[in-house]
Amino acid sequence: MPVYVVGHKIPDSDSICGAIALAYLKNQIGEASVPARLGELSPETAFILEKFGFEAPEYKTSYAGEEVYIVDHSELTQAPDDIDQATIVGIVDHHKLGDLTTSTPLECWIRPVGCSNTIIKMMYDFHNVEIPANIAGIMMCAILSDTVIFKSPTCTTADIKCVEALAEIAGIADFKELGMEMFRVKSAVDGTPARDLVMRDFKDFNMNGNLIGIGQLEVIDLSVFDEIKADLEADIAALKEEGKRHSVMLLLTDIMKEGSELLVVSDDVSVVERAYGKAPVDGRVWLDGVLSRKKQVVPPLQDALA
Question: Where do the domains of the chain lie, and which CATH numbers do they carry?
Answer without folding.
Answer: 3-184 (3.90.1640.10), 194-304 (3.10.310.20)
